[in-house]
Amino acid sequence: MYGNDFGTPESQQQAAVTGESESFRAVLADDARVEPRDEMPEAYRKTLIRQIAQHAHSEIIGMQPEGNWISRAPSLRRKAILMAKVQDEAGHGLYLYAAAETLGADRADLLDQLHSGRQKYSSIFNYPTLTWADVGAIGWLVDGAAIVNQVPLCRCSYGPYARAMVRVCKEESFHQRQGFEILHHLSQGTPAQKAMAQDAVNRYWWPSLMMFGPPDDDSPNSAQSMAWGIKRFSNDDLRQRFVDMTVLQAEILGLTLPDPEISWNEERGHYDFGDIDFTELFEVIKGHGPCNEQRMAHRVKAHEDGAWVREAAMAHEAKRAARAEGAA
Ligand code: BYC
Known about the structure:
By secondary structure, the chain is mainly alpha-helical. The protein contains 14 helices and 2 strands. The chain has a two-stranded antiparallel sheet. The chain is globular, with a radius of gyration of 22 Å. The protein binds benzoyl coenzyme A (BYC).
């Protein structure tokens, strides 16, 4: 549905009472997409801006832990692949900021909210990348978790977000494979290389499970977001899907997941796994993770250092527009 700027008087009356117009409900009931100029409840718009902005911020902050290894990648080939991957993340951030702008959000304002700590980014990017194997673990586990979380977002009820996710997911699949391939290479290498791969998996496993968010009974936004078709599955359902997918891949890699409680549960048809320390997740979200301060300081400095580029681009555009007007 596109361009339904003005609802009927009845639907406007209903919107005033419930915040949801008839046309909005009809779009959701048909599993169609809400488009930028369609009527939508203010709370729906705000929820989308919150989630899309957090997602966009995660993509650009996510460039840091891996960007850290571009100059130290073990070969020219590895360096070229990693550089392309980090550039992809910048692109994902751009699609997502553009999707948030279709909801009336201002990009400069969103960045300001990130820099002042009023908007979040994913907890996972507050962990350090200590060895080259961490780049593999991020690709395999972090991008793997991102794919499980983001494939259902391709069916999100908000059109621009859903469409952005299609391309993001294709690129994330490539990232996940490059991470798997790095770890596969290391795990088949010398004992020291295999130990390095195992150490990276040991450190990234639990934080990757935390990426899916708090457990369902402690997730204040899930019920409404699922009713609106923004989220299609709960945090715990997606986390379980990720564990089920990853256990077999770990076997192929010859690496061990650091959880002795992982075992196949015939009755549930899923792998059981140990308790996650959610206090750690909440501490990291509050800003007390190992790298929060460093990530934010780096981001703010990059933004300030880039001010002249933004100003030059705007000055160029103003001159171009003035020339075009003069010629006309
Ligand atoms: N980290 O009610 P809940 C990537 C917050 S990009 C930080 O369950 P919701 C990649 C949550 O925001 C990865 N905060 O919330 C990039 C909420 O706080 P507010 C990012 C978290 O929104 C580069 C509160 O906790 N992916 O993978 O229903 C390179 C309560 O949670 C986290 C996305 O953003 C967390 N882990 O569900 C490589 C995907 N978890 O806002 C890879 C889109 C929860 O109420 N986002 N919080 O103050 C989503 O799917 C959902 O927003 C979440 C959370 C599942 C993350």
